[in-house]
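Holo prediction. Input below; ligand is pyridoxal-5'-phosphate.
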Amino acid sequence: MSTIKSQEMQKRAKQRIPGMTQLLSKRPDQFSLGVWPGYYSKAKGVEVWDLDGNLYVDMCIGGIGANVLGYADDDVDKAVCEAIKNGSSSSLNCPEEIELADLLCEIHPWADKVRYARSGGESMTIAVRIARAQTGKDKVAFCGYHGWHDWYLSANLGTENALGEHLLTGLDPRGVPKGLTGTALPFRYNHIEELKEIIANNKNELAAIVMEPIRDDEPDAGFFDEIRALADETKAVFIIDEISAGFRMNSGGAHLIYNIQPDIAVFSKALGNGYPIAAIIGKGDIMDAVQKTFISSTMWTERIGPTAALATLKKHRSLDAGKHLVSIGKLIQEGWVRLAEKNDLKIHAGGIPPLSHFSFEYYNNSLALKALFVQLMLDKGFLASTSFYSMYAHQQKHVESYLHAVDEVFKVISRAIKQGDVEQKLKGKPAVAGFKRLT
Ligand SMILES: Cc1ncc(COP(=O)(O)O)c(C=O)c1O
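Structure of the complex:
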């Protein structure tokens, strides 16, 4: 199996695109530089072709959670092609954005109004701006990952690595105005006492409490009720970030499952099955603060995003896709644990089933082991890493052939650990964890 063209493209990318790609999670060094194909020519269902014509079954990050139904979904693409034929943008607005707003508010009956953007981080920035405009306050207490923008990255100003506890470690806040120091205050999931301390130390200064509904652990009983009460008490806007969790376990926000009562919820990723779209939905009086400030952008008015979202949501709902995504994810997560045990490997598996992940519990060389896993799975025709994001197009047969391959690969890895020759078996570089400059 040759990946010459893919590797050549990566060399060109390094010359022309600082950091190689626009998204850390798709950087080849996150898998194994020199081995990971990096570029695709075609994707359909769960299959991906690289530039050298190699075909892989994608049992990996599913477009990092964007392609919830599967790649190039026929129904979504049909709606998008129709929108393109009829003009994907004009001097007038597209009616699809009203239809989508109605649908989002029907699915989330607590919400009255909707604004749109086209990507996750920017839509979180809009939500935070709305909260600041509405409350007239500046500070934000947050938990979890919310993107690359100044309001969020400022948490690492003047701290060791405050964001290291929130998905990505090593995020350098260089370029973020130092004046934002102390405006974004992190607390950990299920650590209500940390939020209480933030509130006690920042009396009447919190504009928002920002959280993901779930990432790894289930919420403790009463955790979100307390957050709701604290938000009311401090008159802070409660924002739920559904960018990763939304449309995974149900056809809506995960907050519906956990009976969380937000003021604003934010969606992107799965919403458009890979087409750029993001929605900020919320209570009418709070969303109206959009008009007290200036939030406006040309490309937020194009037609493909809302069209794709409507087609995705309708299909997702009619198939009850969340059920399938959960059951596939469970099979994968249970499979990892069972096969690791069988092959005498120490791993830790976690995540909600549709966004599953595992790590090799070998502290000195877990990243070399990850790279070896990636490499050996590529050899068997799978795009695979230590994360698995379910797509509706994943079927039992994919799970079976994948787990069969994992069994064989775990066996090789287990033997390599015992023989102490993991590094020698690597054709590429060990994986990189978190954010580091690409050299
Ligand atoms: C919970 C959450 N919020 C925000 C973002 C940022 O979204 P985007 O990458 O579309 O800017 C992500 C991306 O992974 C996310 O998982």
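The mean pLDDT is 96. That is the main takeaway for now.
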